Amino acid sequence: MTVRVEQSYRNFKQVLDQHPEVAANAIEAIRRAGFAPRAGAIRGGTDGSRLSYMGLPTPNLFTGGHNYHSRLEWISVQDMEKAVETIVHLVRIFEEKA
């Protein structure tokens, strides 16, 4: 019997741990948008994981969506606006620290 292991989802925490300022900036941007940041594990492949292993350390930020990957998945306009506000704050933080 031969077993072949093929890596499909990589844990990008290893990359982000080498660049703690990226996550710190994301947390600050979330605070500036009026939220209390909550960190948690995400299972499966994400854009953040893929981008991190391509050389761009990228934490996953909230989208405000509900019922992900189901027939009932949805997001409100207000939640999308807050996600955009957070991203604008994140860009400003990187500019401030440049």
What does this structure look like?
The protein has 98 residues and is an all-alpha fold. It is built from four helices and no strands. Helix 2 crosses helix 4 (77-96). The mean pLDDT is 90.
Q: What are the defining features of this structure?
A:
98 residues; mainly alpha; 4 helices
Strand content: under 5%
Q: Mean pLDDT score, rounded?
A: 90
Q: If helices are DSSP runs of H or I spanning 4 or more residues, what is the number of helices?
A: 4
Using the alpha-carbon principal axes, give the shape. Answer: flat
State the helicity in percent bands: 40-55%
- Sequence of secondary-structure elements: HHHH
Derived structural class: mainly alpha
- Report the span from N to C terminus: 55 Å
Radius of gyration: 16 Å
Unreliable sequence segments: none
Number of strands: 0
Describe the sheet with the most strands: none
Concise overview:
With 98 residues, the protein is an all-alpha fold.
Give a topology summary.
Blueprint: H1 13-17, H2 20-32, H3 47-53, H4 77-96
